[in-house]
UniProtKB/TrEMBL annotation, chain A:
GO terms for cellular component: cytoplasmic exosome (RNase complex); nuclear exosome (RNase complex); nucleolus. One of its GO terms (molecular function) is RNA binding. It comes from the Eukaryota. InterPro entries: ExoRNase_PH_dom1, PNPase/RNase_PH_dom_sf, Ribosomal_Su5_D2-typ_SF, RNase_PH. Pfam families: RNase_PH. It comes from Penicillium argentinense. Belongs to the RNase PH family. It is found in: Cytoplasm; Nucleus. This is Exoribonuclease phosphorolytic domain-containing protein. PANTHER family: EXOSOME COMPLEX COMPONENT, EXOSOME COMPLEX COMPONENT MTR3. Residues 64-228 form the Exoribonuclease phosphorolytic domain. Keywords: Cytoplasm, Exosome, Nucleus, RNA-binding, rRNA processing. GO terms for biological process: nuclear mRNA surveillance; poly(A)-dependent snoRNA 3'-end processing; rRNA catabolic process; rRNA processing; U4 snRNA 3'-end processing.
Automatic annotation (TrEMBL), chain B:
Its main location: cytoplasm. Belongs to the RNase PH family. This is Ribosomal RNA-processing protein 42. InterPro entries: Exosome_comp_Rrp42_subfam, PNPase/RNase_PH_dom_sf, Ribosomal_Su5_D2-typ_SF. It is found in: Cytoplasm; Nucleus, Nucleolus. GO terms for cellular component: cytoplasmic exosome (RNase complex); nuclear exosome (RNase complex); nucleolus. The lineage of its organism: Eukaryota, Fungi, Dikarya, Ascomycota, Pezizomycotina. PANTHER family: EXOSOME COMPLEX COMPONENT RRP42, EXOSOME COMPLEX EXONUCLEASE RIBOSOMAL RNA PROCESSING PROTEIN. Residues 32-57, 89-109 are annotated as: Disordered. Keywords: Cytoplasm, Exosome. Residues 41-57 have a biased composition (Polar residues). GO terms for biological process: exonucleolytic trimming to generate mature 3'-end of 5.8S rRNA from tricistronic rRNA transcript (SSU-rRNA, 5.8S rRNA, LSU-rRNA); nuclear mRNA surveillance; nuclear polyadenylation-dependent rRNA catabolic process; rRNA catabolic process; TRAMP-dependent tRNA surveillance pathway; U1 snRNA 3'-end processing; U4 snRNA 3'-end processing; U5 snRNA 3'-end processing. One of its GO terms (molecular function) is mRNA 3'-UTR AU-rich region binding.
Length: 339, 385
């Protein structure tokens, strides 16, 4: 009779060791990764398709490289998509030549499935419109700190944001008495700050905003993959006001960055996510938080901080839209090939 | 019930007929002079009765009741807790030479998780989307209201409120206050409960007192047991002879703003929000330096008008076949939404908000002498004794 008792893991989780030699600056492993992109340059999302020729993207305004937005990966769902952001330069370097067990930053990876439209259960009340349910869940291993299996409040919050973003785009009255379930699993989440930083006065869940933007784009691609009528593809975009330097943080005003990776900046002062429909120039979801009053804009710029932030997020969403449109085109192509 | 839960962010699906919705929309979207069902002006709030310090067992409490019978009670409790210096951060170990500067910056500037908020709404489970969304919305503006930089204090006396609320919760490097804000909605939510809950929370925080600290520096905290000398969490201006603008930090307040047509309307009731083109929750507080208002957060809320039932114009109605086509039954382009609509025939809203509309709504809230200042002044006037 073998021993069937369950041996539980340590309750508090374990962490990789950090050696003192790694923390000396200059070795590279203990340094904060630096942003290599221009302020208005986005991280790349791209079609992962070997048949497509690369130059189409390289000539684009947003210099895309190989990361992934791919639709139709999950055959049992009526629509699905997988989205992956390009890892930052330091993360790529750290993966190729690891100096520390701790990765310097993380890159967003998420999978989205769409089930439906399907009839509502008998017990549900009559609805003249399509009933949308969104479900966002971090995988337990998605962040540096383990997430539980039960959705916590931040995940529920993300679900509500996503629902707002999508409901404005879906033409819901074409499916009365039907339901649509959108499930997003986040496989790797963005960090809220660099892992070596203690939380400071600006700490907030900034990574969540990047995750939301990714969720919106991926869900939009999956809905298009499920052939559900929409007004337009909704693309998610993030812009942030970051103050970078440590020496004289009070003298320099925060600057506007599109698609900011929180791990690359000392502190993020304010950030904004939008879900944007370029064809109608409309925002279906807006989430702005933080103090945007002290932004340093270009001379002669009359906009207030929050307006600049929203405009920046819209620009970022426009960039994501180009990839989104390409992914949907590929999804349609596949549907034609199969029929 | 299940329908209500699914339409969580929109609070409730309105139970109005398309004809009623269309009538409401038309009267609310009259250019520059909307007619609201209860006769208020666009920026006017519903009459309310407010009192604070009603619960002796709490550090601060408040009750607000709207005239329609909805009431909310907020209790604020504070507990002393040991600060768990994060061992996974490098801040305390890495920079040996400037360790004074960086040592445990969490212990100096506070941490957002020290403020906990729970909202209870009858008819909703506490993990339903609406209570979670509301509490996240109010908490994020509360812990996000940082005055300046990373707790950079010019004068020693300004250090008190340097990190906003989070900084105020720090006792010393090893101890801090944990704040529990419990919001209780006593009645069924007749309208979207955000303005009520936010105003009540603001009032409760204004009346919150923490016992006076007797220990100094890094000692284990030890408090004066005389409640009469307890200090306000947010220092009151009236109690001090000199005005200290640098300390003039106030809790944030979240306003619910809707746009209907070209009009911006505040504190919508249930019927008004049912026809809104766009619903925004805008959090603001007083900027301690500029003396004006400062935007803390904006969130869109899913307008319930997207869930309504559409009406059918006579020209498309099968029952009206053969009847002479009415002349007014011609679709025109609504300039605000960009949709083709037959006047007087309700269509559920589609699409999003234009950026100019958002800018207009924020501007109405923040401008000098605008609604935001009115609300903050009114709340300040509630007697806290």
């Amino acid at each position: 009779m073998n021993d069937r008792r369950r041996v539980n893991g340590p309750p508090g989780g374990t962490r990789p060791p950090v050696y003192a030699s790694l923390l000396e600056t200059g070795t590279g492993a203990g340094d904060r990764s630096q942003r290599q992109r221009q302020p208005a340059e986005l991280r790349k999302i791209c079609m992962h398709d070997d048949n497509l020729s690369a130059p189409a993207y390289q000539t684009n305004l947003w210099h895309f490289r190989t990361s992934v937005l791919k639709t139709g990966l999950i055959p049992s769902a009526s629509g699905s998509s997988y989205l992956e952001f390009e890892p930052s330069a330091s993360l790529t370097a750290a993966r190729a030549n690891p100096k520390s067990l701790i990765p310097p930053s993380s890159a967003l990876k998420l999978a989205c499935t769409v089930h439906g439209p399907k009839p509502l259960p008998r017990s549900a009340a009559f609805s003249p419109n399509l009933v949308l349910t969104t479900h966002v869940k971090y995988a337990p291993f998605a962040a540096r700190k383990r997430k539980g299996h039960v959705r916590d409040s931040s995940e529920r919050d993300l679900g509500v944001h996503l629902e707002t973003a999508l409901r404005g785009a879906i033409i819901a009255e074409r499916w009365p008495k039907s339901g649509l379930d959108i499930t997003i699993t986040i496989l790797e989440a963005e960090d809220d700050r660099w892992w070596g930083d203690a939380p400071d006065s600006h700490d907030a869940s900034w990574g969540m905003m990047n995750v939301l933007a990714g969720c919106i784009s991926a869900a939009s691609a999956a809905i298009a993959d499920a052939h559900i009528d929409c007004l337009d593809l909704v693309a998610g975009g993030v812009a942030a006001l970051v103050s970078n330097d440590s020496t004289n943080s009070s003298s320099s005003a925060p600057r506007l960055m599109l698609d900011a990776d929180p791990a690359e900046h000392r502190s993020i002062v304010s950030a904004c996510v939008v879900a944007y429909m370029p064809a109608r120039d409309e925002i279906t979801e807006l989430w702005l938080k933080g103090d945007s009053s002290k932004a340093s804009l270009a001379a002669g710029d009359q906009r207030t901080g929050h307006e600049a932030l929203i405009d920046g997020a819209v620009d970022a969403a426009r960039g994501a839209y180009t990839v989104l449109a390409e992914a949907v085109r590929e999804s349609l192509q596949r549907a034609f090939d199969q029929s | 019930m299940s329908n209500q839960r699914q339409a969580s962010s929109a609070s409730q699906t309105p139970h109005l007929s398309p004809a009623e919705l269309s009538y409401l929309y038309t009267s609310l979207s009259l250019p520059r002079a909307p007619i609201r069902p209860d006769g208020r002006s666009p920026t006017q709030f519903r009459p309310l009765s407010a009192e604070s310090n009603i619960l002796p067992g709490t550090n601060g409490s408040a009750r607000i009741g709207f005239a329609d019978g909805t009431q909310a009670i907020v209790g604020v409790k504070a507990e002393v807790e040991r600060t768990n210096l994060a061992t996974d951060t490098l801040a305390s170990q890495s920079d040996v030479n400037d360790s004074e500067e960086h040592q445990g910056s969490a212990a100096v500037s506070g941490h957002g998780s020290w403020v906990q908020m729970s909202i209870e709404i009858p008819g909703f489970r506490d993990d339903d989307a609406l209570p979670v969304f509301l509490s996240e919305m109010m908490r994020e503006s509360l812990v996000g209201s940082v005055t300046e930089g990373s707790g950079k204090a010019d004068a020693a006396d300004a250090a008190e409120m340097a990190g906003g609320l989070k900084g105020r919760l720090v006792i010393n490097k090893r101890w801090h206050w944990r704040l529990y804000i419990d919001v209780l909605l006593l009645s069924q939510p007749l309208s979207y409960p955000l303005p009520l809950l936010s105003l009540t929370t603001h009032l409760a925080l204004l009346s919150t007192k923490l016992p006076k600290l007797k220990s100094q520096g890094e000692e284990d905290p030890f408090f004066d047991d005389d409640w009469a000398v307890a200090e306000y969490l947010y220092p009151r201006i009236s109690s001090q002879k000199t005005k200290l603008p640098s300390q003039y930090v106030r809790p944030p307040v979240t306003l619910l703003v809707i746009s209907v047509g070209e009009n911006v309307i505040f504190d919508p009731n249930r019927e008004e929000i049912a026809v809104a083109d766009a619903v925004l929750a805008i959090s603001l507080t007083r900027d301690s330096e500029a003396g004006s208002l400062k935007l803390l957060s904006i969130r869109t809320i899913d307008p319930p008008s997207r869930l309504t039932q559409p009406a059918v114009p006579n020209s498309e109605n099968v029952n009206m076949l053969g009847a002479p086509a009415p002349t007014e039954d011609i679709a025109v382009l609504n300039p605000v939404t960009g949709e083709e609509e037959v006047p007087g025939v309700w269509r559920p809203r589609r699409g999003g908000i234009k950026r100019s509309v958002i800018a207009n709504m924020v501007q109405t809230v923040l401008k000098k002498g605008g609604v935001g200042e009115d609300v903050l002044e009114g709340l300040e006037g509630v007697e806290v004794e």
